[in-house]
Amino acid sequence: MVKIKRWKINLFLYIKKVNSNNVIYTADEAGNELQLSSSEVNSFRPRKNLQINKIAYISSDGSQNQIYTMDPDGSNVFKVTNSIPIAGFNNNTVFIC
Fold first, then answer.
1. pLDDT digits (tens, 9 = 90+) for 58-92
2. Contact indicator for 47, 55 with CB cutoff of 8 Å
3. How far apart are CA 44 and CA 32, in angstroms?
4. Any bridge partners for residue 12, and if so which?
């Protein structure tokens, strides 16, 4: 994974399929792309919070989904949910703010 120095603004957050896993990417207007999450696990539903300069997202942790945060360059990953995973009737409708 190639990191771009001082990635200040994540204009676009999106998911790409890599080796059957959903991976979070960001890009700027020029099309410079940066992989933010690991391609070893499913990560999805990225949401940026400009006030605290963090990205929240859902990622698989074994067979359960958990909420994580990270810096805009993909560093400082923090697992928000620990002993209780997120759950819903349909994970496609579970959102984070």
1. 998 878 889 999 999 899 999 998 877 777 645 55
2. yes
3. 20
4. 27
Residue with tokens 């002993």: 83
CB 61 within 8 A of CB 76: no
Q: 0.85 cut: is pTM over it? A: no
User: What single DSSP character describes residue 3?
Assistant: P
Q: Where do we find the tokens 């409708």? A: 93
Sheet holding 12-18, edge to edge: 12-18, 21-27, 33-35
User: Amino acid letter at 29?
Assistant: E
Find where tokens 């990191």 sit. Answer: 3
